[in-house]
């Protein structure tokens, strides 16, 4: 449906103007998003418009291109009277040497912050069973335990392999993890760390990484519970 920039047309009757006015109304509704809640199509707009009293004027999601100035990635200025701006932009090769993709950012009057996305995460309880550690209690983007290559595999005492469901863009992601030692002694610690190696891809790749849970003396221990989060990359 076309948009009529000249409407109403002063030189014609009200009756004759109905066609252009109706076309403009349909254009606004379609462009702003008059589809029902739950629509999941490429053409679905991120606003609610003429859907319902509780929905109209709100967002169903935020979808936008990476911000640019002169076709180059940039950080938008904060509008007059505004306190902050949220946006997405393409990472440069200086920021991300292996993988340049569009990432979310937030800017206030003090600084610019990248909102590092969680690529994968997992919380699992230790069971001391080899080779599968099936008691995953919370996860995101981890292969299913029932799959051919489970999300968490116990390779030995305190030794594990974590496999992602969807591969990460590069191996340059951050890993933060922790664990609770299965021990009643107050103060008994358990350290979480990526396994040692002389080649990065041996223990850390786009599809999986290997880690261990150990005491500060170096002895491996199966955790009461362990967790990790993979950011960025």
Round the Cα radius of gyration to an integer and report it: 26 Å
Helical run tally: 2
Helicity, in percent?
A: under 10%
Would you tell me the overall average pLDDT?
91
Largest sheet: spatial strand order: 7-6-13-10
Report the end-to-end length measured between terminal Cα atoms.
43 Å
The secondary-structure class comes to mainly beta
Strand content: 25-35%
The major beta sheet can be summarized as: 4 strands, antiparallel
Q: What's the total count of β strands?
A: 13
Shape: elongated
Indicate the low-confidence ranges by residue numbers.
none
SSE topology string: HEEEEEEEEEEEHEE
Characterize the structure shown.
By secondary structure, this protein is mainly beta. The chain is elongated and about 90 Å long. It has a 4-stranded antiparallel beta sheet, with no helix packed on it. Strands 8-9-12-11 form a 4-stranded antiparallel beta sheet, with no helix packed on it. Strands 3-4-5 form a 3-stranded antiparallel beta sheet, with no helix packed on it. The chain has 2 helices and 13 strands, in the order H-E-E-E-E-E-E-E-E-E-E-E-H-E-E. Among the domains are: about 45 residues, no CATH class; about 110 residues, no CATH class. The longest helix is centred in the N-terminal third of the chain and has 19 residues. Strand 1 and strand 2 form a beta hairpin.
